[in-house]
Design a protein that fits this description.
155 residues; alpha/beta; 6 helices; MAP1A protein; actin binding; microtubule binding; MAP1; RibonucZ/Hydroxyglut_hydro
Length: 155
């Protein structure tokens, strides 16, 4: 029965204080250690929307190492709030370089911003090396037999 397997596996490591692969140590000085997420296998998706309108609040190279998409949508048209963030676009390059497989990735900016234009020009060689294609925000995107301007991709 599945229950027997469960109880056997939970008793196979007596004395170890692990909860879902995270050490439970209340005396730990680092508050982050209790919040860290155990590394799992990467997730492959067709389309990923970069969180927070591509602001640097919670998107780092780790996001791009773990969420591997054929298409990333970069929204954000608010320079005052750092959206889109150059750091996030650089994190895409760093994260993608860790994939170990040269799958093609397409970046779809929904707006034409100074940040995305500068990043595109300054990192163009690196993009080619990593098989990253950047669509112009005025591009037409075809999904499920329907075509529409890239700027219409909002979630």
């Amino acid at each position: 029965a599945p229950e027997d397997e469960l109880s056997r596996s939970s008793h196979s490591n007596p004395g170890k204080s692990l909860v879902n692969g995270i050490k439970t140590n209340p005396a730990s000085n680092s508050p982050k250690s209790s919040l860290s997420v155990p590394m799992g296998p990467p997730v492959y998706v067709d389309l990923a929307y970069i969180p927070n309108h591509c602001s640097g609040k919670n998107t780092d190279p780790e996001f791009f190492k773990r969420v591997r998409a054929s298409y990333y949508v970069v929204s954000g048209n608010d320079a005052a709030n750092g959206e889109p963030s150059r750091a996030v676009l650089d994190a895409l390059l760093e994260g993608k370089s860790q994939w170990g497989e040269n799958l093609q990735v397409t970046l779809i900016p929904t707006h034409d911003t100074e940040v995305t234009r500068e990043w595109y020009q300054q990192t163009h060689e690196k993009q080619q090396e990593l098989n990253i294609m950047v669509l112009a925000s005025s591009s037409t995107v075809v999904m499920q037999d329907e075509s529409f301007p890239a700027c219409k991709i909002e979630f």
